[in-house]
């Protein structure tokens, strides 16, 4: 029961953070210089056109009213229309179309990072010694030193342009064709996952080594328990929890990678939408995208907290 | 302590690479025979050779020279941004942990909120608000890193606050700010420095990303990001511009990251030793 209380408390906290974050984004956006009406209609627009534009987009309503209307939009699914992007399409429609793509690439990248790091981290933990230490640290440092988009282009160069195994541009959504999505999403996901894999591998190696050196492991082995048994019952849970916490912490950076890599590979996702909107000074879209990203981060953090609470009930305190 | 540092191969390797990069960027750039903006339409898009280590770009400019000058800009931006964040974040974290109560609650909640946004998204959002350019990218990087330093300084100050020497200083009547500066700060400086060196590396990646998208440093100012953006346009015909400049970034950042890792290994066991 305490676990359920914990989950509820954390969920409310996450929701509160998203709300406050949305408010902060909204307020900061209002401080942006430039009149959106002039930005869209051009500097030589007539005063009547400007007034009509402002009336249409409710730009003259009081601040609190506008914020509440905007917030309500998240709940009802009507966030207004984009100023310039896609000919003024509905923002919620744009986001709804693109969110599956971004989520798919993100999950794909996490899949690679976690999978590869579980392999590499365990192998590195098994082979102890100075050489393994230096090797793992160097590879981890190299992984973190690579800009995602650069790696993306290198991958394109080798796999798409030279070997023609994979397409270099474009993305098929997961709902259109799962196989297409897996194929076109492979290179973007790999590009994003490289720095993550490096960090996770190193973390897993550290936590595994720390866990196996604990006293209770020595005692368990001295009782005659087999290595796999000791691993499953004594080592696994204790090493996997810090690992999951690190995975959660890195999501901040993974989402940043998604934004640029979407541009590089032409994936129609929230990231590329935000970049296009940034260029076009389409403030409502930028606002909405920022809050969507915040919501994704909070969701991931919440998931990590819940998983850790389930694995280690002591955390529910 | 220097002996410990010397025995760590990662730290020494990192230091060596970082010093090499700094030397290349400051002195080496001046020694180059090409100008970073000197166009030459007879040598457009040449592949790497002994004359042009990284080849030439679409304006005939020597890419290697541009990379050296661009690295200067990028490292300056990232260094200043992280330095600013270090000062501001440490101040915020230390004072919040020391003075506590409502100030602590409000300030750290604000830091948590900032930290909840993905780093690059936050930087991107800020560029939309305050506009592009070198100074604004610096501010964006600073804003991304302030919560990280604040949280680190906060947790460390909480730990150190109860130590005997702090209590003694308070009993002696030392004013709070001086106490923070003379008793607490030296003892929490090490992890902050580690975070700073790793932060500069990531700051370069943020700057490169923003400039690559065209939302950061604006051409013709060379920065690692704008050079890669140039290379992206001609990627099929001349992949070396993007590839080689990216490799240079990797090399420079590898040095910084190895240095940070080495420092971190140095700092942690020392902390553990001091506790026993």
Q: Please, could you describe this protein's structure?
A:
The complex is a heterodimer of chains A (317) and B (276). With 317 residues, chain A is mostly helical. Chain A is 78% helix and 0% strand. Chain A contains twelve helices and no strands. Chain A starts with a helix and ends in a 6-residue tail after the last helix. Chain B is elongated and about 75 Å long. In chain B, 78% of the residues lie in helices and 0% in strands. In chain B, helix 5 crosses helix 6 (134-161). Chain B has one domain (62-275): MetI-like fold (Orthogonal Bundle), CATH 1.10.3720.10. Classes of the chains: A mainly alpha (317), B mainly alpha (276). Chains A and B meet through helix 1, helix 6, helix 7, helix 10 and helix 11 of A and helix 2, helix 4, helix 5, helix 8 and helix 10 of B.
Tell me briefly what this model is.
The complex is a heterodimer of chains A (317) and B (276). With 317 residues, chain A is mainly α.
